[in-house]
Specification:
With 25 residues, the chain is mainly beta. The protein contains no helices and two strands. The mean pLDDT is 67.
C-alpha cells in the first residue's frame, strides 16, 4: 500500500491506496 497526504480545502487527508489500483478522482 502507498500512503498519500493530500491537502484539500486546507485540510490534510491521509489516504492508503493499492498501487495496482487505478486512481479514479
Amino acid at each position: 500500500m502507498a500512503k498519500f497526504n493530500l491537502s484539500i480545502n486546507g485540510k490534510q487527508h491521509e489516504v492508503d491506496v493499492d498501487p495496482s489500483t487505478p486512481m479514479l478522482w
